[in-house]
């Protein structure tokens, strides 16, 4: 419940605490928890009670919307990390149902992020093979914070049957998310994972209808969006997360700049989805070069959909600015949320915000039980070093 006295005392941030909606989902405020990879499920992808407590802490802290970490969508090639949670079978969905219930009891809404890791997979007990648009190895190396090491493997170039399997898997996962009680689903089309790999020029060297110009390279993302919206859009909010940078390449930018943005966001807007979630290292920075519109502005301009913006919106003034500008409807916080699980309550009541996680949490992982906390700390350190942390 919003305290009108607090709003009167802190009018600069009033916009953050106004209600809004994404599709048919009503939100009490415009502050969301960004999806953050955590790798703290069971070995078979079941979310645990500890994970439920983790998410409930943010709902208790006043976040109007929570978005899960990326959930793998099938028992084939979609899983990206060992101990990653899934939404690929009824057992996983049933476990998520308990977590969702705890979030709803706090008055918050909960979206499931549906993810296929593609060629950036570095831990999948179902297979050693990875899939990608082409047989192109991702840049950089696997991430130690997720138990990976060395170069990524060269993926298998997907054929028409593989593409059909992936499209069907996204639909099944969305239906399972609906069964689990989630309020929405977010298709992971960012950070170099499968759908973004198709969109990325140097990762996609295909010569069929999924390769070549940007209209072809965004095709799989639009097909998945359309499939999911048709399957569950009457019951759930449906959106997609889009970025330029990747887990393996934080500096990537779309080659044709604003022209590519226009093509991508217009195509996505025609699929029947409700929102686009843009993520950049700095959401308020120009998308291309030193001047010009932000990625969120371009998404709003060319799609007309609700926009969630993520990227270094730690300061409440910055978060309110992007809402006030009309570029975004909701802000998604990662690093500041880890340091302040009650960020909305603190801002609303004028309490100081912790700028970072305590320094004593920045050491190596002591035990598997401590992985969750140490990973969160390492994600913050990774982001502070100037590289966008996965799902940050």
What topology does this entry show?
Blueprint: H1 4-9, E1 20-22, E2 25-27, E3 31-33, H2 49-60, E4 65-72, H3 90-105, E5 109-115, E6 131-132, E7 156-157, H4 160-179, E8 184-191, H5 194-199, H6 214-217, H7 219-232, E9 237-246, H8 257-269, E10 275-279, H9 295-303, E11 306-310, H10 316-324, E12 330-333, H11 335-339, H12 343-349, H13 371-384
Parallel strand pairs: 3-4, 3-12, 4-5, 5-8, 6-7, 8-9, 9-10, 10-11, 11-12
Antiparallel strand pairs: 1-2
Helix pairs in contact: 2-3, 4-7, 8-9
Structure description:
- The protein has 392 residues and is of the alpha/beta class.
- It has one domain (4-384): TIM Barrel (Alpha-Beta Barrel), CATH 3.20.20.70.
- The chain has helices at residues 4-9, 49-60, 90-105, 160-179, 194-199, 214-217, 219-232, 257-269, 295-303, 316-324, 335-339, 343-349, 371-384, and strands at residues 20-22, 25-27, 31-33, 65-72, 109-115, 131-132, 156-157, 184-191, 237-246, 275-279, 306-310, 330-333.
- The strands form three sheets. Strands 3-4-5-8-9-10-11-12 form an eight-stranded parallel beta barrel, surrounded by seven helices.
- Helix 9 links the parallel strand 10 (275-279) and strand 11 (306-310).
- Helix 2 packs parallel to helix 3 (90-105), helix 4 packs parallel to helix 7 and helix 8 crosses helix 9.
- The chain is globular and about 55 Å long.
- Mean pLDDT is 90; it is low at 1-10 and 359-392.
């Amino acid at each position: 419940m919003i305290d009108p006295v607090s709003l009167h005392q802190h009018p600069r941030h009033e916009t953050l605490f106004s209600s809004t909606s994404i599709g048919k989902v009503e939100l009490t405020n415009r502050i969301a928890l960004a999806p953050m990879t955590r790798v703290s499920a069971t070995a078979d992808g079941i979310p645990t009670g500890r994970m439920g407590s983790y998410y409930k802490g943010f709902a208790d802290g006043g976040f109007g919307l929570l978005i899960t970490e990326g959930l793998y969508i099938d028992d084939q090639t979609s899983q990206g990390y060992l101990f990653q949670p899934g939404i690929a079978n009824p057992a996983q969905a049933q476990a998520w149902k308990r977590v969702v219930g705890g979030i709803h009891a706090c008055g918050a809404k909960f979206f499931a992020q549906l993810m296929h890791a593609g060629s950036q997979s570095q831990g999948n007990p179902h297979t050693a093979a990875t899939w990608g648009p082409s047989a192109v190895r991702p840049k950089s190396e696997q991430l130690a914070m997720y138990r990976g090491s060395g170069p990524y493997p060269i993926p298998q170039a997907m054929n028409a049957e593989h593409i059909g399997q992936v499209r069907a898997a996204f639909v099944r996962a969305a239906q399972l998310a609906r069964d689990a009680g989630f309020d929405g689903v977010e298709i992971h089309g960012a950070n170099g994972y499968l759908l973004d790999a198709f969109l990325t020029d140097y990762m996609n060297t295909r010569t069929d209808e999924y390769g070549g110009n940007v209209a072809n390279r965004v095709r799989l993302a639009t097909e998945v969006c359309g499939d999911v919206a048709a399957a569950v859009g009457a019951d759930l909010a449906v959106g997609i997360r889009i970025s330029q940078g990747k887990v393996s390449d934080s500096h990537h930018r779309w080659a044709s700049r604003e022209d590519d943005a226009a093509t991508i966001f217009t195509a996505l807007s025609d699929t029947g989805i409700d929102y686009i979630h843009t993520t950049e290292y700095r959401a308020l920075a120009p998308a291309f070069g030193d001047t010009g519109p932000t990625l969120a502005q371009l998404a709003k301009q060319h799609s007309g959909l609700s926009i969630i913006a993520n990227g270094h919106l730690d300061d409440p003034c910055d978060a309110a600015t992007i809402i006030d500008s009309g570029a975004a409807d909701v802000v998604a916080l990662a690093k500041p949320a880890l340091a302040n699980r009650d960020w909305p309550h603190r801002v609303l009541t004028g309490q100081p915000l912790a700028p970072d996680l305590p320094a004593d949490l920045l050491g190596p992982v002591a035990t598997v039980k401590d992985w969750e906390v140490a990973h969160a700390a390492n994600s913050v350190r990774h982001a502070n070093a100037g590289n966008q942390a996965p799902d940050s």
